[in-house]
């Protein structure tokens, strides 16, 4: 409106007044300021993205420390000065341009490189100069726009990632502490040998010979020998026990029945004391091969033995080597779950020797303490089956030199004299190291223990007198003889 009045006055030939000239100047200054702000806005909108500046490493050679970016501060200063020039429209035009030029003036870098040239690119005053090249660094190399890292960077990073701190050596599992010697439990063993101590058993029949006698009758020795022969003691073992008694009776060394009874117990203890009970540990792993005829109780004995060894802190592995009887594998797996030990089983109908070889090799790697190998029951009269058992033993030796460390024959205590024949045949085929007598709680004779120990010079390692795992007992000669032939009652034995 003011400009229109000024033009109308000029056309009319009237000279404009001083107030009108000042007003026009202010209007022109405002218009120029708005135009400059618009130009600055478009320049700021169209500025290119700044590349990331290379980083310098610190003097100690450690991780690179990024440089201080002074460009954002320069941009803010330029923008603030331009806005101030726009708001102060009444200032001279030259002063506003001088402020804009001051805002555009690049700040000198403290090292005289990089940022000054990049500032010129931002304000459109020239092409950006190439940044100064630095030593290659895997950690701070920029990633190209394609998203792929340079090959040399990836190679360098891969080399760094491979050089990891070595893992500390695994500490080998310490060997289990030696098991404490079991305290004797004569009263408990007598419960398992209850049939032997009945009137019709070995102890009951021998005791009846001494009832009511105050003097020793020479015929007493003959009567004792008859009882022993009919109690599965055997001819050889009976002669061994009675021969010494007969000589001492002839010399009148015995004057009362108690001394005769005591001498019989001492001699029986000497006969069965061919070795202590339990298995011998021969390092890690100790391989125990369990053999025997059908129905002798091998698989059940293995399960009970695994329970005892696991309770002692030993790592036990069961091997289902009886691949011909499907129920044997399932039975062993049930024992493994119950006890909490590993069960190694092959396919149905697999070669028992191959299963035993793989199992022992696996036990060596896994660090098992004891390996209990089950085998198929076989008649001792079948030579081909006995040859197959020899093959299993040879294969185990190939898997671990020196194995099997123990070969235990499991014998049913109720078989009587047939148990002696089994022990003889298996001893010819394999180097037996001990005997396990099972089911002694089911027989009234019990003399087979004396017969096997005396005639075959085999150590009785375990005896089974019940169904529970704790009923598989380490054989103790004195405890066994006292439980079978001791005259004291159960209460006295328990005390």
Strand order of the largest sheet: 5-4-6-3-7-8-9-10
The radius of gyration over CA amounts to 52 Å
| Distance between the first and last residues' Cα | 132 Å
Mean pLDDT across all residues, rounded? 75
Please report the total strand number as a whole number: 10
Please indicate the percent range of residues in DSSP E strands (runs of 2 or more).
Answer: 5-15%
Element order, helices and strands?
A: HHEEHHHHHHHHHEHEHEHEHEHEHEEHH
Count of helix runs: 19
Low-confidence stretches at least 5 residues in length (pLDDT < 50)?
51-72, 88-171, 490-495
Work out the helicity level: 40-55%
Shape: elongated
- Which structural class matches the secondary elements? alpha/beta
Largest sheet: 8 strands, mixed
């Amino acid at each position: 409106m003011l400009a229109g009045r000024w033009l109308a006055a000029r056309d009319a030939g009237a000279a404009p007044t001083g107030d009108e000239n000042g007003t026009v100047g202010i209007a022109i200054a405002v218009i120029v300021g708005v135009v400059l702000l618009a130009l600055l806005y478009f320049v700021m909108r169209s500025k290119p993205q700044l590349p990331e500046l290379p980083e310098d490493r610190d003097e100690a050679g450690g991780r690179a420390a990024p440089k201080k970016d002074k460009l954002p501060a320069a941009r803010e200063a330029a923008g603030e000065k331009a806005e101030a020039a726009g708001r102060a429209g009444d200032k001279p035009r030259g002063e506003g341009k001088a402020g804009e030029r001051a805002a555009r003036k690049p700040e000198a870098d403290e090292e005289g490189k990089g940022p000054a040239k990049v500032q010129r690119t931002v304000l459109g005053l020239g092409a950006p100069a190439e940044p100064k090249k630095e030593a290659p660094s895997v950690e701070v190399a920029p990633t190209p726009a394609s998203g792929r890292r340079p090959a040399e960077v990836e190679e360098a990073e891969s080399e760094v990632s491979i050089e990891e701190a070595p893992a500390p050596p695994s500490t080998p599992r310490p060997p289990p502490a030696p098991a404490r010697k079991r305290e004797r439990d004569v009263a408990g063993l007598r419960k398992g040998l209850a049939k032997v101590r009945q009137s019709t058993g070995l102890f009951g029949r021998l005791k009846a010979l001494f009832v009511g006698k105050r003097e020793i009758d020479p015929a007493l020795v003959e009567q004792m020998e008859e009882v022993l022969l009919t109690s599965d003691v055997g001819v050889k073992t009976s002669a061994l026990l009675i021969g010494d008694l007969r000589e001492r009776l002839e010399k009148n060394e015995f004057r009362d029945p108690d001394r005769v009874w005591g001498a019989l117990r001492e001699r029986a203890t000497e006969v069965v004391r061919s070795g202590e009970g339990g298995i011998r540990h021969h390092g890690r792993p100790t391989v125990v091969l369990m053999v025997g005829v059908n129905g002798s109780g091998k698989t059940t004995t293995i399960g009970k033995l695994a329970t005892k060894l696991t309770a002692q802190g030993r790592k036990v592995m069961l091997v289902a080597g009886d691949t011909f009887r499907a129920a044997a594998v399932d039975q062993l797996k049930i024992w493994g779950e119950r006890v909490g030990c590993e069960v190694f089983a092959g396919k149905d109908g697999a070669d028992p020797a191959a299963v035993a070889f793989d199992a022992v090799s696996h036990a060596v790697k896994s660090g098992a303490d004891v390996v209990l190998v089950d085998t198929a029951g076989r008649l001792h009269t079948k030579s081909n089956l006995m040859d197959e058992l020899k093959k299993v033993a040879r294969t185990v030796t190939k898997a671990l030199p020196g194995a099997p460390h123990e070969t235990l024959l499991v014998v049913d205590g109720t078989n009587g004299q047939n148990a002696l024949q089994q022990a003889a045949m298996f001893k010819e085929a394999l180097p037996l190291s001990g005997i396990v007598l099972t089911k002694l709680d089911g027989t009234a004779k019990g003399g087979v223990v004396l017969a096997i120990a005396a005639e075959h010079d085999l150590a009785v390692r375990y005896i089974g007198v019940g169904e529970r795992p704790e009923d598989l007992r380490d054989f103790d000669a004195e405890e066994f003889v006292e439980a079978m032939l001791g005259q004291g009652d159960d209460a006295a034995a328990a005390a």
